[in-house]
From TrEMBL, chain A:
It is a multi-pass membrane protein. The keyword Transit peptide does not apply. It comes from Marinomonas balearica. The lineage of its organism: Bacteria, Pseudomonadati, Pseudomonadota, Gammaproteobacteria, Oceanospirillales. Gene3D superfamilies: MetI-like. CDD domains: TM_PBP2. This is Iron(III) transport system permease protein. Belongs to the binding-protein-dependent transport system permease family. It is found in: Cell membrane.
TrEMBL record, chain B:
Coiled coil: none annotated. CDD domains: PBP2_Fbp_like_1. Residues 1-25 form the signal peptide. It comes from the Bacteria. Keywords: Signal. One of its GO terms (molecular function) is thiamine binding. This is Iron(III) transport system substrate-binding protein. NCBIfam families: phnS2. One of its GO terms (biological process) is thiamine transport.
Amino acid sequence: MDATSTVSRTNSNKRPFFGQKSLDEWLLGSVLVVGIIALFICIVLPIYSLLSKSVQNNAGEFVGLDNFLTFITTPSLSSSIGNSVSIALICTFIVTSLAFMAAYGLTRTKIPLKGTFRLVMALPILAPSLLPAISLVYLFGNQGIMKELLMGESIYGPIGIIIGSCFWTFPHALMIMVTALSNTDARLYESADVLGASPARTFFTVTLPGAKYGIISVAFVVFTLVITDFGVPKVIGGQFNVLATDIYKQVIGQQNFEMGAAVSVILLLPAILTFITDRWLQRRQSALLTSKAVPWVAPKRPIVDRFFLVTMIILSAIVIGIIAMAVYASLVTFWPYNLALSLNNYQFDLMDGGGWESYWNSIEMACYTAVIGTGFIFFQSYLVEKLGGYKVIKWFFHLFAILPLAVPGLVLGLAYIFFFNAPNNPLNGIYGTMAILVVCTISHFYTVCHLTGTTALKQIDPEFESVSASLKVPQIYTFWRVSLPVCLPAVLDIASYLFVNAMTTVSAVVFLYSYNTTLASVAVLNMDDAGDIAPAAAMAVMIMMTCMVAKIIHWFVGDVLLKSSQRWRVR
Amino acid sequence: MSKKNWMHRLAVLAGITTVSVAAHAAKTELTVYTAVEAEDLKKYAARFNEDHPDIKINWVRDSTGIVTAKLLAEKENPQADVVWGLAATSLMLLDGEGMLQSYKPKGFEKLSPKFRDNSAEPVWTGMDAWMAAVCYNTVEGEKLGLPKPTSWQDLTKPVYKGHIIMPNPNSSGTGFLDVSSWLQIFGEEKGWEYMDGLHQNISRYTHSGSKPCKLAAAGETPIGISFAFRAAKSKKKGAPLDIVFPSEGLGWDMEATSIIKGTDKLDAAKTLVDWTVSKKANEMYNKGYAVVAMPGIAKPVKYFPENAESMMIDNDFGWSAANRKAILKTWQERYDSKSDPK
């Protein structure tokens, strides 16, 4: 017997029929409409303004599919498609398996030091992507201290891209996976136990199906992140051409926006696939956390616990190793010929890139992004998941929310120029200000936050809404009293995810900052560009430490708040 | 509180107000896009303000590719007033889009003819030249038993197989500068033949023009094809580099200046551009660059050859610009495929 079927509910679509929509629903519905208009303006229109160039020539005339034909018929370009897909598939496989194991270890075992492990494994996301790139070169490059490990293979190529990509996508995957695995219903495990299922069988019939939605989301997120990223392949990809570096070559190297747009359109395909799969899964996903659910508490399982403890230690060691190398790089005077250590590289006001001012700008930008972004994204994802009706709007909302994931930051940044700087755009006043950086960053990182929010909300039984509706409790009250507290861990995750990404992002904002809004992450790039590798590493370390402080605050706030809001999880 | 104290305070307050109001009223702010090294920007602005304290420069700085892409993307509603210090080839591209304001600054005639736009209505003026150079890491070179190359032809010798890194001309202006200069030095047919030979020795092509020299400085490769300014900078920082200026001649591009069409601060922009071609400005450029626009100004710069200017090829920018697409296409077909040169 399939244990899940006993408690599954189809989904939120099956709401009791109360005739006309209540005033409450109209109100929340209008908030949803405002939300979708905002997404339309901040995501769809800018992207369209750039991608429409893919069917134009340099002079702006319509040329149909000519650009695509050129792309397909140029062997050196079309080979990138195969390269990109194979790299992305390998990374997806590695990251999804590792993230599942790590998330299982964090949520379903009794291993010690969970908080520490979680912090360590979030580290890769806390640092600008240049940091692991510098570190990989120092570790495995021609002068690298561990280059023998590659057995004569070069780090500059597919190997480098895979290691680098897995490193930076892992925390993204872990965040969704932990959310997917943290809500459980002990009754399922009890039933499995009573029915005499072996632990393996329980794992395959209860645990895996319950996390199915999360696993597939993670797979698609990782695939799309890897295939659209140009930072890692640019620095360490050597001669190995991928689609994202092709865009870089077209747009930055040759200022050929039309061809760059055509390649971007090709990159949108995986995102559309993600969207279709997501919709398809949605119909099959059952709410795990029903109103009758009892949280499952991991029993002591010495062998399992020991296995996961070892796994966590190995994963953490790899992460710490890569980070430590970069910290060391920031202290070295001149690698590899003068290894004397000093703190000179931290005197940013003496260097390129805007000095300490850009560091404070970054913090300001990250705070706005976290506060505004979390409020908007979580409330909207609540409405999408839990508000009755508005099916068409919700469908489009999901589509719009998935889009940014598929758009390389470089493309989004240029798209923002084309759209927001147009003389006839009434919003062109925000161009060149802090506001556009915040809007762009929220849009850029919308997808993972949206998926985290909906994954968390999906696990709450829609019965809560039905019950409150029949008791004539306004839905906003249910949101405040039930959904928000239950999802608080996810909300905090979203906030810190946004903060951290705002600190580290480069690809989109590099086109949008102005003279008084220079950013630390851009400074890292510029210092590296100017040959100041150690100061670049130093600024990257500063960014990482700031993000760690944010994470620690997240952790403490989480701990205090969660003690009161999550007490129901403890039996 | 004594009366005197009060008066004193009032006077100071009045003084501050007057000064700040006066400063505020007179100050024009110019948004200037540039690809000049950030550490030089403060100095450039400070020198300019010695003569024109009433104009404040707000710099927007990034690498050449990004600044050019940003300017082109902003074409419909330009944000920059002036571009000061961007590759002349980029400015020619912008000129082709009709984005530049024609203006002949005071002192235009004093610049050497190859450092100015010689059309009837000039739109840009040059500042200084940045030229190709080869970075040779003496420590790694010795370890691998590689002789120091002295010419472009040397680099095709089998001994260097897998030891040379150069920028990809499809991603980097420096890379294109190299390719177009070889085609001009050796002639088209011989030029491509030369690159066939060079390709056998290249371990990889990078996306940035300064990267090959940085990689040579860090010992990641013994030889990197890059440009002289970067090479001198790395050497100054302590890298064991020898900077080679190949004997056949050096490809070069210049940093140049122009006013963006449609600026509403045209007067201030003209004042700035007038200053950028002045003797004082040229002396300032000479701190980092061996060859500057005004003849007779340049003093030798450390790590640059004294005859730097005569080593520069007679670069035909018009020809490069006109054939850029075709050259890049041929290059891509020949060398940018999946098959890695081993």
